Inverse folding.
């Protein structure tokens, strides 16, 4: 347990020491999105009858921050350690692959939640609606953070170079996030694209999280919870198997 | 180190490591007793680092087994890794933390709580106390190397492996390091050293294994290796080159720009050698007797194997 706690502490301390870059910067980016999109689109985009566009946008941006930062945390930590070689410091000690997974994922969730909270607090002056079901919101933030933290470990282990990791981020994580309904309700899409959206687990994370805010969503929060949980379990199994075998870590 | 356990510190049985078509280890068997100061020598690519990686769990063997203090490095990896401290060859560091943070974190990884007294002792013994709160990024190469040594020792492992610890390191650090490592060895820690500096191995190691192309080609006490493989040499500088008689030609080991080296077994032979040289018309300018050294032994072994 001491080894697990220490690895978690180290991973959390790592991002906290450079919080200006790991927390401050993404909060600023999200606030810029919020100011610009809500200003430009407020009167043009209609989502739900009862919800203003700005209020609709806030939980999407918060959740997007949680997801992107959870991914960044584990993936960047691992690729940096691999490239600089200091990964040996965690490979030499008696740390089990489960402890390794747990520590990296929880640290990723922590960074995701810290950035998400930052974005939410910064958005309060623009908001008119509070959080209706905080437990739902929290459940999706935790599960979503865990899923992206897991994907971050997979990507960080798989990638041998920074540009491979960037490709993973730019060609998988970014499109899936952008096409998940952060900026729009999928009901505004043609039926075909609505169908495609339902294949994207990111859509369920954003939609379920948004339910926590308004009590309104595109699909039932229980369905979203189920999809997200199943996706998390699948990625976790893949990730744990990679770690157990020492894929690309222990030759 | 562990009471009631007198098995070998390290036991390597039939270790094979295949990287595609390259065989890095071609069946290594080796036992290192507790308390030994053991040298692992060999040219680049001989398999030293692969063997150490397998020992440390960084690489998995294609076949064979390795145990540290009786604990299998795969099946009982937790116990085996607790018994082992490895100083890696590459100068790696975590740029986010200070020296003391790094050592605290590393202690935690090994399940050691409240390690401050030992951390302070390590810092002192490695002349790092003044750098304890400095960020790793700001340290010189030599200082980073010292931190690597401290990191390997935070959990007081009974077996310590140093993979080329003095490569590119100044004289002062080498001395500090060896003094400290010898102290640990005297306290009962088993030390395994790989080095390119053969004089270091000769001075420190009681037993040596030489590796070539993934095989152990020699395994004996340092004294025996020196005795068997290398001999004394008589080095002479002569004024003008001469034609050597056959008796001398047999004993010639080196001929470089007027400097000739002849091997001999007993000191009585020196007089005969010199007399034969003079009789052949050589005018001696300088005479020197050199003792057998590991470098000579090493070169001899590598060319024979």
């Amino acid at each position: 347990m001491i080894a697990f706690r220490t690895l978690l502490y180290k991973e959390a301390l790592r991002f906290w020491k450079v919080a200006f870059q790991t927390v401050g910067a993404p909060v600023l980016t999200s606030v810029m999105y919020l100011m610009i999109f809500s200003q430009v689109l407020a009167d043009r985009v209609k989502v739900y009858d009862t919800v203003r566009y700005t209020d609709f946008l806030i939980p999407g941006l918060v959740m997007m921050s949680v997801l992107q930062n959870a991914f960044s945390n584990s993936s960047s930590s691992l690729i940096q350690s691999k490239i600089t070689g200091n990964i040996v410091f965690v490979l030499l000690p008696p740390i089990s692959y489960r402890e390794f997974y747990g520590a990296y994922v929880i640290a990723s969730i922590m960074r995701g939640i810290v950035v998400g909270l930052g974005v939410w607090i910064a958005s309060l002056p623009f908001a008119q609606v509070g959080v209706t079901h905080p437990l739902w919101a929290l459940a999706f933030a935790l599960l979503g953070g865990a899923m992206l933290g897991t994907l971050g470990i997979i990507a960080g282990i798989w990638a041998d170079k920074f540009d491979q990791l960037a490709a993973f981020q730019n060609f998988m994580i970014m499109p899936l996030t952008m096409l998940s309904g952060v900026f729009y309700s999928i009901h505004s899409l043609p039926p075909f694209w609505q169908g495609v959206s339902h294949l994207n687990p990111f859509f369920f994370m954003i939609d379920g999280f948004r339910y926590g805010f308004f009590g309104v969503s595109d699909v039932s929060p229980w369905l979203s919870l189920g999809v997200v949980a199943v996706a998390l379990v699948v990625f976790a199994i893949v990730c744990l198997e990679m770690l157990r075998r020492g894929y690309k870590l222990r030759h | 180190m562990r009471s009631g356990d007198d098995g070998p510190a390290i036991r390597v049985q039939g270790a094979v490591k295949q990287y595609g078509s390259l065989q890095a280890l071609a069946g290594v068997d080796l036992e290192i007793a507790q308390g030994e100061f053991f040298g692992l020598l060999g040219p680049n690519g001989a398999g030293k680092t692969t063997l150490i990686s397998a020992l440390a769990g960084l690489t998995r063997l294609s076949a064979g087994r390795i145990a540290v203090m009786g604990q299998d490095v795969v099946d009982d990896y937790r116990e085996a890794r607790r018994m082992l401290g490895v100083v890696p060859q590459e100068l790696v560091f975590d740029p986010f933390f200070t020296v003391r943070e790094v050592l605290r974190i590393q202690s935690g990884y090994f399940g050691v709580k409240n390690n401050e007294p030992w951390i302070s002792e390590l810092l002192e013994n490695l002349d790092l106390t003044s750098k304890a709160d400095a960020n790793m990024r700001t340290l010189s190469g030599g200082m980073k190397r010292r931190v690597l040594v401290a990191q390997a020792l935070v959990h007081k492992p009974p077996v310590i492996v140093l993979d080329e610890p003095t490569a590119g390191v100044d004289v002062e650090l080498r001395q500090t390091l060896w003094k400290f490592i010898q102290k640990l060895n005297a306290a009962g820690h088993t030390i395994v050293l790989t080095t390119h500096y053969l004089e270091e191995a000769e001075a420190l190691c009681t037993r040596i294994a030489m590796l070539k192309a993934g095989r152990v080609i020699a395994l004996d006490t340092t004294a025996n290796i020196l005795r068997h493989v290398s001999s004394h040499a008589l080095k002479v500088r002569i004024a003008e080159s001469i034609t050597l008689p056959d008796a001398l030609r047999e004993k010639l080991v080196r001929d470089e720009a007027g400097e000739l080296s002849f091997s001999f077994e007993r000191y009585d032979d020196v007089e005969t050698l010199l007399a034969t040289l003079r009789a052949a018309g050589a005018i001696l300018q300088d005479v020197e007797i050199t003792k057998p050294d590991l470098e000579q032994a090493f070169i001899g072994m590598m060319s024979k194997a």
